[in-house]
Design a protein that fits this description.
The chain is an alpha/beta fold. It has helices at 4-11, 53-69, 77-93, 95-106, 110-131, 167-180, 195-207, 221-230, 243-255, 280-292, 312-324, 344-359, 393-396, 412-419, 435-444, and strands at 20-22, 25-27, 32-37, 44-50, 138-139, 146-154, 157-161, 184-188, 214-216, 236-240, 260-264, 270-273, 304-308, 363-366, 370-371, 379-380, 383-386, 403-409, 427-431, 449-452, 464-465, 474-475, 485-493.
Length: 494
Amino acid sequence: MLNQKQIDSYRDKKISPQKLFIDGAWIDGSGDDFEIVSPINGKKFTSIKRATVSDMEMAIKAARMSFDNGSWSNMAPTQRKKVLHKLADLIERDALELTVLGVRDNGTEINMAINAEAGSAAGTFRYYAECIDKVYGEIAPTANDVLGLIYKEPVGVVGAIVPWNFPLMIGAWKIAPALAAGNSIVLKPAETASLSLLKLAELAAEAGVPDGVLNVVTGQGSVVGKAMGLSMEVDVLAFTGSGPTGRRLLEYSSQSNMKRCYLELGGKSPNIIFSDAPSLEQAAKVSAMAIFRNSGQVCVAASRLIIEDSIHDDFIKSVIKNAEELQVGNPLDITSDIGAINSETQLSSNLQFVDIAKTEGSQIALGGHQILKNTGGYYMEPTVVTNVKPNSTLFKEEVFGPVLAVSRFKTEEEAVKLANGTEFGLSAGIWTSNLAKAHKMVSKVKAGVVNVNTYGGADVTVPLSGVKQSGNGSDKSLHALDKYINLKTAWIQL
């Protein structure tokens, strides 16, 4: 259980200027320093390196050399397993330090971050550690005079680019299966959330990950992210972030070595409330948290609430009541339910979406403003927007902030049409007591994850996948390993 005194022991700890982690060493690189501003109070508290193309090329070369020399790729599976378990142990040992570091960097409320970041990352590394010696090759069903063998081999060098909202959790989703499969990695964190992943590199080295196997290069996506995408030595690119950036990475792949690109590109997820939901009170409570936790800065956030017409007005009142009870404040205070917006730029974007919604005829039922300006930080009150039409900006575009768009429906068919009325397809929610209806809706709603009578909470045993323009490939589960493995056939005439 979190203790405020323990949190406070880390909250103002001096953080030294950060370096790049390449080939098992901390280096300055050739770029300049980039000052990190905490969204908690708007103050600078450390700096990271803004790496150059040559720095990224150095990291990729280190990853390639470590892969080719077999220090990790040829290590016995049982030994790799021990190293990843050790890394999980170290994450758990330093969980609070890691979490506070991340919260100072990106503003996520610590009550959520302690489990979603360090807790989740440790669990993810343990899960894939256990997979290492349990994933077998195959023997094909051939004629008696032929032996068909199917080998599963590591792809080589994996480039991973992760966002600022849950850097440690999402970083682990990519790093852990890639390492479990025997690959070497170059990781580029977001500029506004690099600190916990730099700390992770330190822990990986302590756990016994060989030099060059995990490299962390900070800096601008337009510089080092582009260099990673264009590299002829990166075999697979795993990315979580925006659609426009994902498109550019595909272009870089086509311009270089046709590297495989796996993209998780966010969503505009529908949360459909039928009048026969098992508990409308519980549905309202969960629906509020499904959009307002982490200030709405969640890829799978239930940002579109689609309510059956007969219960619309009462349900909205219940959602608003739950939202009003949420305490927005310093994310390092355990009394805060919701923390800060990641950056001043993101806050400004959120507020612009609210202004656009007003001009397009929607009503602001709750919130819509910046708050706690006196702190110097970036905070926004939970915002509920009603009468959101299917052709409106707020219905179609991802805000990535605490802004809930509300629409209503009369028939099941209309609910499906509204749910599928965007270019995204990452997550969805359905609330009904009718089992047949639930099954039909799961089938008809186009999303990689469909929650029924809940929202969120799916663990590492199941995949997170996107459809339509929410991306491709899967994070989490055994299926994530597929991204980091090449299949090789041996056809042997006996």
